[in-house]
Amino acid sequence: MQKKELFKLILLILLALPGITHAQYTVDNVGSTQRPFYLVGSLPPDNLDNYQKLQIDILGGGWGNNNLGVTTYYVGNRGGLTIHQTTQGSGASSFGIKAYANPNGNTDIYIIITQDYPAISIKSFKLPSNNGQLQTIVQQTPIGTDVTPTVLPVLIIDANGNIALNTFDSKGYKFAINGSAIATSMTVKLNSAWPDYVFKKDYQLPSLQEVKAYIDQNQHLPEIPSEQQIAKEGLNLGEMNKLLMKKVEELTLYLIEQNDKIEKLTENNKVLQNQINNVKIVK
């Protein structure tokens, strides 16, 4: 093949790529006030012969720029119907997923439109089915009984880049986990000052009598959040470590102060003891 012909072939492929990519999404729903159901695939009954899975991708959501990403549902029906969801950089409020037990024994999976004026494209892929197969998506009224399980939000990234694991709501935090976490190392960088100012000469150390009065009235240390506040708002690890360090430094000052008093008392006791001994000797 001559270079000129090869160049033309490459150019044609590049021009066709956008159309090929879009063709993978088999259904669009844009700007409608209707709330249709789209049958995106069916899974066999829950038994040991069922090895099929569905992957449903939905591009977009609503009209706004907060719906630019892709939501993917992963559906399986072996050992119980399970639906996992991942969302990357988009909102999924304009659509949802439903499962219906069809009288024929299969479980039908539907994508439903839940808000007016959506802007989405849908594709569905079944595996294994002839080494994987795009599913024909049909708009129809569901048949059978609604058996939709709780959808597990495996990974949700919203339009602001907030990341949530095992929860749909990051509550405005950049990273939210519904469950436990483990790390080999973690660094918290505070915006406020580390409390070494406690050791400065002009620091006003509260008296122990003042601390006792506060504890008697509030049942917790000054500046430390109460049990009720922690239960409501959670625990800020960086801020709490700063407050605990402040209390440790204040406690160190109290111990130094008490130690000075003990040493003075010990010295005074020695003087008194010597005076008593001297009185005994004179007698």
Summary?
With 283 residues, the chain is of the alpha+beta class.
Q: How would you sum up this structure, described in words?
A:
The chain has 283 residues and is α+β, with helices and mostly antiparallel strands. The chain has helices at residues 3-23, 208-218, 227-233, 237-282, and strands at 27-30, 37-43, 53-61, 70-77, 81-88, 95-101, 107-113, 119-127, 133-134, 138-139, 145-146, 152-157, 163-165, 175-177. Strands 1, 3, 4, 5, 8, 9, 12, 13 and 14 form a nine-stranded mixed β-sheet that branches. The longest helix has 46 residues, at 237-282. The radius of gyration is 34 Å and the shape is elongated. It starts with a helix and ends with a helix. Mean pLDDT is 87; it is low at 10-23.
Layout of SSEs?
Blueprint: H1 3-23, E1 27-30, E2 37-43, E3 53-61, E4 70-77, E5 81-88, E6 95-101, E7 107-113, E8 119-127, E9 133-134, E10 138-139, E11 145-146, E12 152-157, E13 163-165, E14 175-177, H2 208-218, H3 227-233, H4 237-282
Parallel strand pairs: 5-12, 13-14
Antiparallel strand pairs: 1-8, 2-7, 2-10, 3-4, 3-8, 4-5, 6-7, 6-11, 8-9, 12-13
Structural class: alpha+beta
Oligomer: single chain
How confident is the prediction overall: mean pLDDT? 87
Radius of gyration: 34 Å
Low-confidence stretches: 10-23
Strand content is 25-35%
Number of helices: 4
The first-to-last residue Cα distance is: 129 Å
Tell me the series of helices and strands, N- to C-terminal. HEEEEEEEEEEEEEEHHH
In one word, what is the shape?
Answer: elongated
For the secondary structure, the number of strands is 14
Could you describe the largest sheet, including whether it forms a barrel? 9 strands, mixed
Helix content bin: 25-40%
